[in-house]
User: Fold this.
Amino acid sequence: MEIDGVFSGGGMKGLALIGAYEALELKGFKLKRVAGTSAGSIIAGLIAAGYSSQEMISLTDQIQFQKLLDSRKTWLPFPNQITKWLLLYWRLGLYRGKALEDWIGEMLRVKGVYTFSDLPKNSLKVVASDLSNGRLLVLPDDLVQYGVPIDSFPVAKAIRMSCNIPYFFEPVKLRSLEGTNIMVDGAVLSNFPMWIFVKSEIKKIRPVIGLTLSYKISEHPKHKIRNGIQLFEALFETMKDAHDARYISRRLEKDIVFIPAKNYSSTDFQITKEKKDALIELGRSRTEEFLKTWSY
Assistant:
């Protein structure tokens, strides 16, 4: 049966989405259209390119995630820690992000996907945030606003734009006739873009299932804020989830698999095989349980 799927962001927690996808495959569901933000955009992109869940699991066994953290080389006469923060100030991110884009591009090329013209029309939508103009982007659709041709735009670059965790990776600079635009992680404005395929005024083409690495609104634990770091974490999480929380109603919750990976870090690029396998199993088991009663 054909359905559409939406995948949330969550950094390294996104490994759980692979397990969720495996559960969907085992039940015979085929994802016709996919959308995602941040880590969810990687999963969505691989699905659109034709990857199976087993192929994705194999990829996670082969890659050393820490190699995606590509620091800039510098000849500045300062200790490494000072240099890192100087580069953060001037380059806007601790890591370049090119290694991440190159890896995504390599995985897509295996399936013959380079640009959006290599994918079925409207099969993939990813979300990014344009900080220069203060607006949310749905790629590839919104590229026309910048005078950028859609068909020739690299899919890997669009996914990298969606994955650019602020301050962690350097932003992508998208040039247009109006100048240079700074693009960062789509989670800043919409971490779970269920709204791309589900609109109250438009009848759904086919069933839509959402997979998010968060709690139900009614089950979300209260933030504990006792210091500056906890304040920043609570601030970013509230900012990240507030837009989507207003959109997700009781009516939509019946089509959403909630996978709260509370014991895992979004930026643990040195994740152990045990934790990786546990995340995949968490996504698989949560989705299997959900599908037992899903009425689509």
